[in-house]
Backbone:
């Protein structure tokens, strides 16, 4: 899912600006505006591919609608960095 790849790229930028990487992420929530399980699985696989071997606790949830027009995917991530 192209939008998921874009969201994951945006997440990496936001993490970098905070001095973090995906390896610092301790929790993730992936929200997908769809009732189709296959679309949730596609978004989840894109997320998993992006995070590689790092496997933080995560939740995948299908929702009716997200906040912006044409928004299909939202990723919430919590990172822990020392500093």
Residues:
């Amino acid at each position: 899912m192209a939008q998921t790849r874009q969201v994951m790229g945006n997440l990496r930028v936001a993490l970098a600006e905070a001095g973090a990487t995906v390896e610092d992420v301790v929790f993730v929530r992936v929200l997908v505006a769809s009732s189709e399980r296959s679309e949730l699985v596609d978004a989840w696989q894109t997320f998993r591919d992006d995070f590689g071997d790092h496997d933080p606790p995560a939740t995948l949830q299908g929702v009716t609608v997200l906040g912006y027009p044409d928004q299909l995917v939202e990723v919430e991530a919590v990172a822990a960095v020392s500093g």
